[in-house]
Structure prediction request, 534 residues.
Amino acid sequence: MELRGFKSRNATPGYIYFEGEAKPQNSWERFKRFAERTVKGELFVGLWIVLREMIKFDTHTVQYPMEKLQMSPRYRAIHKLLRLFESGHERCIGCGLCEKICIANCIKMDTKVDEKSRKLVSQYSINFGRCIFCGYCAEVCPELAIVHSDDYEQASEQRAEFGLKEDMLTPLDIFKAKKQKEFPGFGALNKDADKFVKKTPLAY
Amino acid sequence: MNETALIIETVIKAVIGLAVIAGMGAFATFIERKVLAFMQRRLGPMHVGPYGLLQLAADGIKLFTKEDIIPQNVVKPIFILAPVVGVTSAFVAIAAVPYFPQFTLFGYTIHPIISDINVGLLFVMGAASVGMYGPLLAGLSSHNKWALLGGARAVIQLLSFEVVSGLSILAPLMMIGSLSLIDINDFQIGGITNWLVWKQPLAFVLFAIAGFAETNRTPFDLIEFEAEIVSGYATEYSGMRWGLFFVGEYANMITISALVSIIFMGGYNPLWIIPGAIMMLLKVSFWIFLFLWVRAAWPHVRPDQLMWVCWKVLMPLALINILITGIVLV
Prediction:
């Protein structure tokens, strides 16, 4: 294996390296620069560019409350607790892994054993004042019960909003309307992720 | 009896002119926001009314109902007077500008000019230049350093552009031999080839540049440039006093657009099958659009660059233009 791959640090061949305009050294060069700038008509280039953009009418405005951007599946917004598709029971089995792994110590859960001697989550809350949205809880969850949603609108009247179990758990009516979105797991890729893969010069 | 009719006609014309120009100025603020937005790949005002059209009304209500703040330590009478000076001079200037060809209504011939005085052009330029007293007085009376800087810049701007606009307009006037804008318009009857812009291209460019300086539009918007002096002379103003300055600025824009159209671009003479009034509207609209277009595209100049370009480049060019015109005429 040869070392050419190491010595060429030009990661992407498409880059253009620009050293900057050469400074004029004498008055003749200064005059030449003046003449070039005068004849080039850069002001009219500017006028043409803005007019072109106006005619193309390729606006990038998202009229936010009416239109919303589709978030990436990897986006980590406020947490949701999902339900089982078959029975509608909550998926959480109360294992407590999320509480353990949480590096901000913001997840708090209480469990009890119910009359059918199944473990039941009686209390579940996330303190969103401390949560750093690292995603470890969703990653560690063995049942895909706690996930990150794409609900990025987190303005509320109280600090405790969004953080209690009844806020996060999929409401039954939404579940019955089959609107609970399945979460492919933390770190899932976009559908078009292949398009963005670039070859990197990792020769070694 | 005849004099009474004249007085009534003049008053009606003045009121209509005032209302139409103020309305057009207000509409121009909307157009400006839209055009700038499109050129910057945005949408501009969209929420009030269809495509944001009622934004005008919303802005008007906001300006009129805002608290009228007069800060401490300002020179109160001058502070109150300054916006009035700015807007009044802008509207006085339009008195001698003919916008349309004369037409007959109910058997009564109407000249759409408030008064056709024999020093028309001189009057328009003089009255519009008095408008610079608005920013100057505002800047001096505001007790605010940014406003003072804005006022000082207004003075150097006046000193710079006034000589260029005066001298550049002299060459076409030598060819026409009259200061009345109606005579200037009639001089260019008969198609595009008779427009003065072909005979006086240099004067046309110089006058356009001076017009941009006179209306404080973007390459020369240094008296209120936000990035340097907050809001310049208008820093301490709010509500309708602030609004008056901008009504004056847009009225000035319309006046300058009309002047350039009349002096250099054939005025309200009909072209081919397009009637004169439509031609005039098209030309004025194009010039207003040019003002906005330039604002979207170009950076602004420093005050010293403005003085440099006006005194060392444009004024000699204007003098050479006068000299050549004189030689050709003789």
The CA atoms of residues 66 and 228 of chain B lie 26 Å apart.
